[in-house]
Amino acid sequence: MTKEILIATHNEHKKEEIQQILGERYTVTSLTDYHIHDEIVEDGKTFHENALIKAKYCFESTGKPSLGDDSGLVVEALDGRPGIFSARYAGNHDFAKNMARVLEEMKDSENRKAYFITVMCLVDETGEHYFEGRIYGNLTREISGAKGFGYDPIFIPENLGLTFAEMLPEEKNKISHRRKALDQFLDYLNN
Question: Is the pTM of this model over 0.85?
């Protein structure tokens, strides 16, 4: 018998990626599967708060164990920006504009250190459980690569010579911040 996990997303790609990682012992569903099309307002001040808002909304709407996540790019020289505003830093989910803004703000900075973070929150009948993944690296000075999404074309993970956008999806998914958070989640489920 498989256990269902509801992912607080309409993104079918994210749902499939999580299903592949969790394996056949779990059935991953999404908001679309429940015909829930409301826009969940992410007005938290941290990644943890936003992940909780999404997971709690889904759990309260369906009664199913629900996983919310919030992810973003944190840039040292920009005092942590774009951070929780990563998806709407220069335009709502317009990552060409978002990347252009980051590169413009970083044009005179020698400090290129940054990291991607994913915070996942599981809300179920036992309460709230958090899982966090990070990958550290450096920002490029120009866009490089066409794969991936978001800020992938301007982020090079530590000890690698390629941006996320130059990697095959399966290569990125082995080391990504989301993978690290999901590995912690899987360890929790298996204990």
Answer: yes
